[in-house]
Amino acid sequence: MNSARACTAAGCSHILLFIPRRKVSGHGMLKTFHIRTYGCQMNERDSEALGCLLEEHGYTLAPGEETADILIFNTCSVRDQAERKVFGKVGLTKRLRRQRPEVIIGVIGCMAQEHGAALLERFAHLDFVVGTDQLHTVPGIVAEIARERSRRVATETGADDTEALSGHRPGAVSAFVSVMRGCNQFCSYCVVPQVRGRERSRLPEDVVREVRQLAGQGTKEIFLLGQNITAYGIAEARRDGTYSPDASPFADLLRAVNDVPGVERIRFTSPHPKFMNQAFLDAVCELPKVCKAFHIPLQSGADRILELMHRGTTAKEYLARIRHLRERLPEVGFSTDIIVGFPTETDVEFAATRQAMNEAGFDMAYIFKYSPRPGTKAAEKLPDDVPQSVKEERNQILLADLVARAESANTRYQGRTVRVLVEGESKRNSTRWTGRSDTNKVCIFPRTDGMQPGDLVDVVITRTTANSLFGCVAEEA
Ligand code: SF4
Fold first, then answer.
1. Given a cut of 50, is residue 223 above it in pLDDT?
2. pTM reported for the whole predicted model
3. What does the pLDDT read at residue 432?
4. Which domains does the chain have, with CATH numbers?
5. What is the CA(349)–ligand 1 centre distance, in A?
């Protein structure tokens, strides 16, 4: 019989649903964990922080999922395809469970939040389901499962403990720092407000403290994360009565992070054009450590579609922001997110997207074929009426445009010297290093003695492709 009671994990007051499972021996010996991550950088960051929290509780990272005592899937609900992948993968772990009955298997993150206890019904071998606001309770939940051999669901919202999830793996050249959670925009196609809740921003001093710690450990690049990062601090300012449309708490945060000694570069994602006011534009243009490469979701270049998407901006307004940044910055790169085949999108509207992408000069974009997500306005109110073949065709057209634009944009780097933050060995060739330019171009160059990940080096570019720049370190040129 199922039962419910308060969680005993430190600092948690939520109710846990207990579903008894068959008895197995060996849970008391659990030592290692593995987290498999799907989806966006927010999920990557959550997995890293949860890994640190589990280590604080005495668990160690397993080299792979086959040997882990605790196997966790951190999941994404944003696309239908991503969900199907996770369903398939979790289904396959049934065999692992048969071979090693003591293993604890859990699903966390957006799919856990969206589907809750239904996941336990679907997968009889699954032990726990923990939603986006309850990640800090995972160590307690795992310990309870090991003790009581029952199943758990924790999906209560509004109880997240961001500060408990601020650990980092030491020694990284680049680190994600989460500055806010949730989103208040309710774009009509997006499940984020449902699965990640309303916007909650961390205090600037907590973010800066985390950045200082990272810089003190040698991290050179800080990647600030928030689903709607340009709205950082706005919900709180509205509540306090201090909101001003001319201010930008995110710009203030950028200035504070820019002042942290040891930080060389700052990147962030994802801004919303609606919140890119003058204060924000001034900050990103003026601050030397803010990289001049901006990922700004456009989604569509047709105003009727943008309205159906509830984006809150027009294509003209979007392009005006891009023009403004191009005029003020001698060197800048832009990337974006696009949805093709949104309900009712016509050929003419698709052509407007193609045109807007060309005008903005994107040389990188994530292009998605629309798929309705349950619980969203678009899924409820709009017909998914663009045939799959048309979505695919539009996708291919934009991808071909992107490759052509990237090839041409990268050719312009030939013979030039670019400042590169060394990240480490190239995956394809261990005699080469890889790193990125300020404008987020991947640069590959021969390894030289004495050079370390985290170094900033000047690379002379001798060859380019659509994806990368190749060259050698300036002294050797
Ligand atoms: S701004 Fe729109 S697309 Fe981005 S997370 Fe919020 S609702 Fe989703």
1. yes
2. 0.91
3. 94
4. 3-154 (3.40.50.12160), 168-291 (3.30.750.210), 294-411 (3.30.750.200), 417-476 (2.40.50.140)
5. 21
